[in-house]
């Protein structure tokens, strides 16, 4: 259990440095209010919140914080607003109809650096990993198998590349957004096989809840999305999982807690209370004894509206790649989704999933430039300042100190050759050199530089 006594003395720190001009003397917790979990409700600028989410397993921290009373502990009364698309959730934030929301990691960067120029920011990660690529059963009939059947990616890629190219029409891959982390990882996966994402496949957008039906109807050939929607196709025997996202990039960020920069400036103490509640919920979600209960809660009609048997495998890590030979393709993957911390060779003891690594943002920026999704086709010289605004670390660091959570000494984390599916390492201090390594990119043969 988190030590709230430590949280008391940190919640009012750093406000001046962040530009806050109001509430700088607020003390979030008051001893005289112990009967309300130590929370002085009067110190919250806005105790009644609307939080947006899309129904998938990555929304578990928000849903569990609501159902298990973590929000209430911190004096928050929350309404969860369900939407079918990430764009709808984002629009509610941009128009201040929601206070904060679950969003794909990439959305704040695209909002600020893309055409919207909107001050959307990320406060913390809600989870790492948690997605997969599902193929139609026609691919199985053509001889393609789940990744676990192959010695390595090189063993897999030749057959998959031939399958994709020997078609009478472009294969159709569905995504829940062209700018989700699933989209960037799918592009990375395709290009690692020598497949150009923008010309050799057709990328289309559908809500996650529709993808299994589109696959079954033959309207798409594959889809990439967060759990548990891949397991739905596996258990219905309409498709099979080829790769899970952890195998494309081990420990990649997936969903975040997003809000508007102006909202945090107006509600600094509420921001910290919200983050503390969600960190507690993330810790709860990673306790094995809670998986069954979490699955029951997520299965409710107002949340995912799915059978528990579809939801729990992704939480517990008893993951099924295919129903063709069920025992053979059911694998134990305890780090399939990481909400706070699980044992994994690529994670250190203090490497909590919720920490907003700056190096994650650097990688994403290289991919947006690689596929020419921003106005600039070069890496910006002022990238550090831009990323500081989009993915501020101060909020998380202050809350983490109060909750006795160890903070990394360096925001930049190098990724070894074992982290990515193509065996390519990533040094976030050398983004231009990293970009120029890729033979497949939207602007080739242009050589990237700084602008």
**Rg, nearest Å:** 22 Å
Structural class: alpha/beta
- CATH fold assignment of the domain at 4-127 and 254-285 and 391-406: D-Maltodextrin-Binding Protein, domain 2
Number of distinct helices: 20
* Overall CATH class of the domain at 4-127 and 254-285 and 391-406: Alpha Beta
Give the biggest sheet: 5 strands, mixed
Number of strands: 14
Shape: globular
CATH architecture of the domain at 4-127 and 254-285 and 391-406: 3-Layer(aba) Sandwich
Distance between the termini: 47 Å
Spans of at least 5 consecutive residues with low confidence? 1-6, 8-41
Strand portion = 5-15%
Helix content: 25-40%
Query: What is the strand arrangement across the widest sheet?
Result: 2-1-3-11-4
What is the name of the CATH superfamily of the domain at 4-127 and 254-285 and 391-406?
Periplasmic binding protein-like II
Give the mean pLDDT: 90
Protein name: NrtC-like protein
InterPro entries: NrtA/CpmA_ABC-bd_dom (IPR044527)
Subcellular location: Cell inner membrane
Keywords: Cell inner membrane, Cell membrane, Ion transport, Membrane, Transport
